[in-house]
Inverse folding.
């Protein structure tokens, strides 16, 4: 297993503009029962935790059709979960998004919504 690296500045800058993150910011804490409506309810949970040699595209495909994608990503970012696919994002994408999320939600830097 490889060790996770810190996201590079250009990855964080891209995360600030990512529509999935903007949606997560808007939909966070919108619905506390979001898990009961997830498209993932009908799929083997292992699908969302592919091995390092497997593509995450199957899981991402399910997430892209899901009505609670924003809430799911918001939960993963708030929990700091960097394993598996959440809200149609990979762990690498979420590491960069986490920096932007912390800035927006916890006020550490300029507002994400104006990015």
């Amino acid at each position: 297993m490889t060790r996770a690296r810190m996201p590079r500045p250009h990855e964080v800058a891209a995360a600030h503009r990512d529509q999935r993150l903007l949606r997560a910011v808007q939909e966070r804490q919108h619905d506390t029962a979001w898990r009961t409506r997830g498209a993932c309810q009908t799929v083997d949970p292992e699908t969302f935790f592919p091995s390092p040699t497997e593509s995450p595209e199957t899981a991402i495909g399910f997430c892209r059709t899901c009505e609670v994608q924003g809430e799911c990503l918001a939960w993963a970012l708030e929990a700091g979960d960097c394993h598996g696919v959440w809200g149609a994002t990979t762990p690498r994408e979420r590491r960069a998004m986490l920096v932007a999320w912390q800035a927006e939600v916890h006020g550490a830097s300029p507002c994400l919504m104006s990015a």
In short: Residues 9-114 form one domain. Confidence is low (pLDDT under 50) at residues 110-115.
